[in-house]
Design goal:
Keywords: Cell wall biogenesis/degradation, Dipeptidase, Hydrolase, Metal-binding, Metalloprotease, Protease, Zinc. One of its GO terms (molecular function) is metallopeptidase activity. This is D-alanyl-D-alanine dipeptidase. It holds the Pfam family Peptidase_M15. By secondary structure, the chain is an alpha+beta fold. It has a single domain (4-173), classed as 2-Layer Sandwich (Muramoyl-pentapeptide Carboxypeptidase, domain 2). Helix content is 27%, strand content 18%. The chain is built from 4 helices and 7 strands; from the N terminus they run βαββαβαβαββ. It has helices at residues 12-15, 44-60, 73-82, 138-154, and strands spanning 8-10, 18-19, 40-42, 62-68, 103-110, 157-159, 162-167. β6 (157-159) and β7 form a beta hairpin. It is globular and about 40 Å long.
């Protein structure tokens, strides 16, 4: 089992990304602060691939903004307690790929820091958040495809119901990490 020391911390300085850990603030779908800090961690296997995604985004003229990465089991339970809907929140009894440290919630930004229009806010739990929702404007669908291209070329797979969620394939092969928030 990995310790917190074995997870890789992502920072704006070391990775050239923007970090906006939404569960470290109350303006998320729960209405509560879930994380006592805004630090961002990934499993080393995911971090290696994520560096490729960061580079690919730059090649398109974008940068990546991270909303969430490693999530403790306690945090996962808090999200489930608020919205026990497995289409959008993993049941903590099964385990979240965030709790394995191999999933990210992200978006793309222009190099001047403007978020690309993805059609919905992150964690909007409706059909409009589904990656291939057809009733969106063409520029939104194109932006989602840029994000998918960047992440899939790096080796990640997408969640069909959440345009923002990417994870390593076969994520269940990684252990759930029992680390505190």
């Amino acid at each position: 089992m990995l310790s917190r020391d074995a997870l890789v911390e992502l920072t704006e300085e070391t990775h050239g990304i923007q970090i906006d850990m939404i569960y470290a603030r109350a303006d998320n779908f729960t209405g509560k602060v879930i994380y006592p800090h805004a630090k961002c961690y990934l499993h080393p296997d995911a971090e290696v691939l994520f560096k490729h995604a960061i580079s690919a985004a730059k090649n398109f003229g974008f940068r990546i903004k991270v909303f969430d990465a490693f999530r403790s089991q306690q945090a996962q339970q808090a999200l489930w307690d608020c919205v026990p809907d497995p289409r959008y929140v993993a049941d903590p009894k099964i385990g979240s790929n965030h709790t394995r440290g191999v999933a990210l919630d992200i978006t793309l930004q222009s190099l001047d820091g403007q978020d690309l229009d993805m059609g919905t806010a992150v964690d909007t739990m409706t059909k409009a958040s589904h990656h291939f929702y057809p009733d969106l404007a063409a520029p939104v669908l194109i932006n989602r495809m840029y994000l998918m291209t960047v992440m899939q070329e790096a080796g990640f797979i997408h969640h069909p119901n959440e345009w923002w969620h990417y994870q390593l394939p076969n994520a269940s092969r990684f252990a759930l990490l029992e680390l505190p928030v």
